Backbone:
């Protein structure tokens, strides 16, 4: 539409023709959802905002000229692809939609009678005129009828047509009208859904009272709406990533390297904005600036605090790298280790001190422990390459790994670690999960479409998010060094788990290093799927893009 | 200090005055040299910073460094090293000057975009007996530019009473239980 300032007579005529048969708001919504298009997509195609499309579909606004032609063309095309199941779109477009009762004339004459208190009038128990089961509730004409026409399951009412159910379910007037419809309207949509709800409860008085049904309906409608709005919120949040990439690409006039650099530069504020988005309506309110125990304060800027993150740096002591060695080793890389590690138990509030030495599964934090000895030569110590003996501060992630290894499933440790002190708070595992899912989705999509710019942007976002969660001057929006340590040590624990899996599958673990490096000897492909997805492993490549492989000598000294 | 929570810790609540927390928060925003005041590198950096301007010499004077010009030249030329007492004084003088120099920048950061929103974490009540515990939640409060202006000035002058007054004027915006926030466990903000 941008180009043609004076529309041609043909286009005006077409617009007038289409506008004469403009579908009703319900039909507009039905056509769009049937075609599985998002409002954003439609809005972009018509050159309007997303909310405008929502208004058109809600009936609170009518399409206006500049965008109307395109919208009508779209609807016409969609109507050919997805004709209405019962009525044609033209019929549905009638200004006053037929009342749903007319669609099922069967029970048109029977309505529940409501007393002045808003409840259904009751009288002598008599067979229901619809299902025959006895009921005390009365219809307007004095005969017995289950309230609202919702008869118990076994002899349920005939299912109304899909078309009427859909129009009722998606009608613009929200929960209120649903509740009213549930209680008053005779046969409409919810009948088949309510039947199973009321059937297990045999007392008809409580389970089927119109008020209870109205409440049930309002609740279900609300939860449906919540699920829908959550999906929509996630789609909107994904759009933030897409929009940022598009903006920077436009700014750089298509220069991918410049756009990537600009995106990496803005990664920290952007990821904090995404985090805030995912926290909207969340269950827990976290504190971004809690009073921290001394162990979590850096003694000096640049110096580390006292927490041991259990970073691995381990080589198998019996094998030596040698050009003529018998064993062929492949270096494997975990994909996006810190992104996966964002699913970990994180303390929500301020850390509280305890010295009772008991591990509470519902809390998370940091613990001063004396670890048991590690006596397995073929596997790395889950505590990383710590040389100093004695007690040390570890995070929840490491402690949970140690407890698991001491448990009946693994039996790799003789006894659980001894806990001396803890700083913990009530915890949840889902804290960063929405953010993790969002970023993982964007990453997968970027890899599928070969979009290097978005991929680098997403990588910068999660990596910088984890590394600046603490007392960083680059990110002042949050100061949770405890979270930073927990996420990191979760990544190391995940790497340990992979090493263990390789060992269990009969591979020889040669080296476990850093956050994501696992060197194994043997055929690893049956053990780990190869690829770039989060659950998969890829072969490490050197600077020239060559896969990293080498040979080692066998432990018996054979060259 | 406002209200009825005059005796912090009477029932084992743990925290600090809101004004102190405000000062600590501003203090946390100051960055500067990381090298030790006793290392060669640290001494050289501090001397360079302090001798670059007239304000530096004033700062040294305030810190009680009274050496002759000849000694100062010897320090700068690294012919001689200051004794431990003077090294500490140099450190004091450096941070004194540094705070003055960054104050304007701190104000700009805190006052831009109509002020900065502050998160207030209530006092730690874990050791308070149940019947004396209050139901306190983390609260957030927008602090306006003129308040930040006064707060940074008070912090620079090391005026704990003024910071306290500023805090007491702020918290009534929290509502009827503002009293409980005269003392806090921590406050923080992004600026």
Residues:
């Amino acid at each position: 539409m941008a180009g043609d300032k004076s529309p041609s007579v043909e286009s005006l005529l077409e617009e007038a023709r289409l506008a004469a048969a403009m579908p009703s708001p319900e039909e507009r919504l039905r056509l769009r959802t049937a075609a599985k298009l998002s409002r954003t997509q439609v809005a972009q195609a018509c050159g309007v905002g997303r909310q405008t499309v929502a208004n058109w579909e809600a009936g609170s606004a009518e399409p206006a000229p500049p965008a109307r032609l395109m919208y009508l063309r779209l609807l016409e095309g969609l109507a050919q692809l997805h004709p209405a199941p019962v009525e044609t779109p033209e019929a549905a477009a009638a200004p006053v939609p037929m009342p749903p009762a007319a669609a099922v004339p069967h029970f048109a004459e029977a309505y529940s009678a409501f007393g002045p208190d808003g409840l259904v009038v009751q009288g002598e128990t008599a067979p229901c005129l619809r299902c025959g089961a006895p009921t005390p509730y009365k219809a307007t004409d004095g005969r017995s009828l289950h309230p609202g026409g919702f008869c118990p399951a076994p002899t349920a009412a005939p299912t109304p047509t899909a078309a009427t159910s859909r129009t009722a379910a998606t009608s613009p007037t929200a929960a209120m009208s649903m509740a009213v419809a549930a209680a008053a309207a005779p046969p409409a949509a919810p009948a088949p859904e309510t039947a199973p709800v009321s059937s297990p409860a045999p007392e008809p008085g409580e389970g089927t009272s119109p008020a209870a049904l109205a409440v049930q309906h309002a609740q279900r409608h609300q939860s449906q709406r919540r699920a829908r709005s959550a999906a929509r919120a996630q789609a909107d949040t994904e759009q933030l990533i897409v929009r940022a990439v598009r903006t920077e690409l436009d700014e750089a006039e298509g220069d991918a390297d410049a756009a990537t650099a600009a995106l990496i530069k803005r990664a920290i504020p952007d990821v904090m904005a995404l985090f805030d988005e995912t926290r909207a309506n969340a269950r827990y309110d976290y504190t971004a600036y809690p009073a921290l125990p001394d162990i979590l304060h850096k003694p000096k800027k640049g110096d580390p605090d006292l927490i041991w993150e259990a970073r691995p740096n381990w080589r198998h002591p019996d094998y030596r790298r040698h050009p003529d060695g018998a064993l062929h080793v492949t270096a494997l890389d975990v994909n996006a280790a810190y992104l996966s590690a964002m699913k970990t138990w994180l303390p929500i509030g301020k850390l509280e001190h305890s010295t009772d030495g008991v591990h509470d599964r519902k809390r998370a934090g940091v613990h001063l422990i004396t670890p048991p000895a590690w006596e397995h030569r073929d596997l790395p110590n889950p505590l990383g390459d710590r040389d100093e003996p004695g007690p040390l501060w570890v995070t929840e992630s490491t402690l949970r790994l140690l407890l698991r290894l001491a448990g009946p499933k693994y039996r790799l440790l003789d006894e659980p670690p001894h806990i001396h002190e803890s700083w913990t708070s009530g915890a949840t595992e889902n804290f960063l999960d929405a953010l993790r899912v969002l970023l993982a989705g964007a990453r997968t999509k970027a890899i599928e479409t070969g979009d290097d710019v978005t991929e680098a942007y997403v990588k910068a976002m999660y990596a910088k998010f984890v590394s600046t969660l603490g007392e960083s001057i680059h990110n002042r929006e949050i100061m949770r060094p405890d979270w930073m340590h927990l996420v990191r040590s979760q990544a190391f624990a995940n790497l340990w788990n992979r090493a263990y899996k390789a060992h269990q599958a009969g591979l020889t673990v040669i080296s476990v290093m850093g956050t994501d490096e696992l060197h194994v000897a043997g055929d690893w492909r049956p053990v780990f799927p190869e690829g770039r997805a989060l659950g998969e492993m890829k072969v490490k490549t050197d600077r020239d893009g060559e896969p990293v492989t080498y040979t080692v000598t066998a432990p018996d000294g054979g060259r | 200090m406002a209200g009825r929570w005059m005796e912090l810790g009477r029932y084992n609540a743990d925290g600090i005055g809101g004004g102190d927390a405000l000062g600590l928060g501003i203090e946390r925003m100051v960055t500067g040299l990381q090298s030790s005041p006793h290392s060669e590198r640290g001494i050289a950096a501090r001397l360079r910073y302090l001798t670059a301007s007239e304000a530096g010499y004033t700062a040294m004077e305030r810190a009680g460094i009274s050496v002759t010009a000849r000694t100062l030249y010897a320090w700068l030329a690294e012919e001689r090293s200051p004794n431990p007492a003077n090294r500490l004084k140099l450190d004091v003088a450096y941070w004194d000057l540094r705070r003055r120099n960054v104050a304007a920048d701190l104000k700009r950061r805190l006052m831009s975009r109509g002020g900065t929103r502050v998160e207030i974490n209530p006092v730690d009540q874990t050791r308070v007996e149940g019947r004396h515990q209050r139901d306190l939640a983390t609260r957030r409060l927008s602090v306006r530019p003129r308040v930040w202006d006064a707060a940074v000035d008070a912090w620079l002058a090391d005026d704990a009473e003024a910071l306290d007054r500023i805090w007491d004027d702020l918290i009534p915006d929290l509502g009827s239980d503002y009293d409980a926030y005269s003392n806090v466990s921590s406050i923080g903000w992004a600026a």
Summary: Strands of chain B lie at 16-17, 116-122, 139-143, 183-189. Chain B has seven helices and four strands.
